[in-house]
Amino acid sequence: MSDASTGGSIWARPRRGTRGPTPTHGRDEIAAAAVALADADGLGAVSMRAVAGALGMAAGSLYRHLSSRDDLLDLMVDRCVGELRPYPTDDGSWTDQFLLLARRQLALHRRHPWLPDALSRRAVPGPNTLAYFDVCLRILAPVPAGVAAKFEAIAMVTGVVSLFARSAAATGTVTFDHVDLADHPHLAAAFAAPSPAPPPGDDLFARTLRALLTGLLTADRP
Fold first, then answer.
1. Angle, helix 69-81 to helix 48-55, in steps of 10 degrees
2. pLDDT, averaged across the chain
3. Where in the chain is the domain with CATH 1.10.10.60?
4. Which CATH class is domain 22-67?
5. pTM value?
6. Does residue 175 or residue 32 have the better pLDDT?
């Protein structure tokens, strides 16, 4: 039995099993092939067999590197998180730095629409993910909030990023055209009132993130 089948975090195991000949493909190539499959056909298309086929190898050969599909997903997520580099420098306010990082996250999620689903599972953070959290805490160092509050803010920002990424990809919208609002006075009043256009240059993403960060981290907490 190969080392990869012994369980535990993939990051705590050798990069390949110690038995048999040196494998043709390493973790980085395996992760790249899996990400390409997910980008093309969604997360459901990613299986040990499919990734092995994309690399021209037998499915059993992957088990010299991985013990399960969860290992594969951990590799994929960490590879994608690495695309957030280079990280923001110390220039500007902490909110400006975090917003820049969030914009990179948004672009990342749009490049890899399956990523929010992969992030929703219980995963073991790899080196790129640990570096991301470390940078987040470095950016938030000037904020006089507790560590728990900072991790809450980091998680909430990722949730908002995922929401904006999914909204951009959505094809359906809710419309109230041709709907009888007679029994819904608040809706009727809202649509009857003139709706001012957003100011020039309005950035809903930035406005939402700034309000979220300041509300979570600088407002008085109970």
1. 60
2. 87
3. 22-67
4. mainly alpha
5. 0.84
6. 32
